[in-house]
Amino acid sequence: MSSRSPRKRLQAEATCPSCLEYFIDPMILDCGHNLCFRCISHIWRNPQVMARCPQCTAMVHRQNFKANLQLANMVEIARALGKQLKVERDGGKCCKKHQEALKLFCKDDKIPICLVCDRSKQHIKHHVVPVEEVDQEYQIWNCLETLREERDKILAYKTLMEKESQDLLDIGNALERCRNWKLENPVVVAPELKWCIWDICDITPYLKNVIEQFKDHLKSGFRLQKENLHFDPLTSGPWVVLSADCKTVTEGDQYRALSNNPESIYIPSFSPGRGHRADHRTQQTFNAVLYT
Ligand SMILES: [Zn+2]
Ligand SMILES: [Zn+2]
Ligand SMILES: [Zn+2]
Ligand SMILES: [Zn+2]
Questions:
Q1: What residues have CB less than 8 Å from 97, skipping those under 6 apart?
Q2: 71: closest CA among 117, 32, 111, 20?
Q3: Cβ atoms within 10 Å of 236's Cβ, excluding its own
Q4: CATH code for 93-142?
Q5: Which stretches make up the RING-type domain (predicted)?
Q6: Residue 229: which H helix or E strand, with range?
């Protein structure tokens, strides 16, 4: 097994043996090796002629070359991984605006910038150089940036601590006030008033009990009266039908001649056909006899 790191091995696999760069449009040969499309075009100018693979020297024919899409995808991954590692190696600093590696340094602003920043209005007229060329200046900026971040963290922590200490101070002051607060002497209550209050306290449950008993008594009395209610048939009205047991009354659908009893009941009707007869008996009611 190779002693090289997986990253190095991946890079080697993604590199063209002819141009020694990452493959661009890789093509697979009969022998199984790969070349960039432009490298093949450069080596084999005549498509009819056989040529040797630059890696294993096997004789291969140009007409048999095919695009290797899987390798093309792998090259993209290797390229992205390389970028990411470079950003991490440079202290993890990348452009906060474009999330790209800070490869350039703006001499006018004295800050590192990414390739996208370089094309922006802000820096287009500035003197921009590769970051490697201003290593010292970049290192200074890097230190300052780290210090700035640390300072922001410390300031945020300080604000938090100040708030917490203020809260603690408030609690301490409140406790101090409580400690100094003297309870006033309780008001002296006259002994007569005290006895009176105790008496009321004693009598209240007894009164409650009496009220409950009285309520029960009233309820049972009403129930008994309802059960013993008896209407007098002699006082019945012309539109009234009395039940056989003389306990219930309903409105009849036929007019019945009234007796001469002046106490007979009359139920007035407002429906068509019956007319409305009002006389002194309208307000009369049954005489109800209560048998107890
Ligand atoms: Zn190549
Ligand atoms: Zn080969
Ligand atoms: Zn940028
Ligand atoms: Zn600039």
A1: 114, 116, 117
A2: 32
A3: 22
A4: 3.30.160.60
A5: 16-57
A6: strand 229-231
Strands 34-36 and 128-130: unpaired
The predicted complex's ipTM stands at 0.52
Reported as a pLDDT band with limits 50, 70 and 90, residue 275 is: very low
pLDDT, tens only, 92-144:
677 888 888 888 999 999 888 999 999 999 999 999 999 888 877 777 777 78
Q: What is the C-alpha to C-alpha distance for residues 134 and 108, in angstroms, rounded to an integer? A: 13
How far is the C-alpha of 217 from the C-alpha of 140, rounded, in Å? 100
Distance 76 CA to ligand 2 centre (A): 23
Task: Characterize 63-101 residue by residue with b for buried, 16 or more Cβ atoms within 10 angstroms of its Cβ, and e for exposed.
Answer: eebeebeebbebbeebeeeeeeeebeebeebbbeeeeeb
Sheet containing 128-130, strands listed edge to edge, beginning at the edge strand earlier in sequence: 111-113, 104-106, 128-130
Backbone angles phi, psi at 60, to 5 degrees: -135, 155
Superfamily name and number for 6-87: Zinc/RING finger domain, C3HC4 (zinc finger) (3.30.40.10)
Distance 24 CA to ligand 3 centre (A): 26
Ligand 3 centre and the CA of 155: distance in Å? 27
Residues within 5 Å of ion ligand 4 by Cβ? 106, 108-109, 123, 126
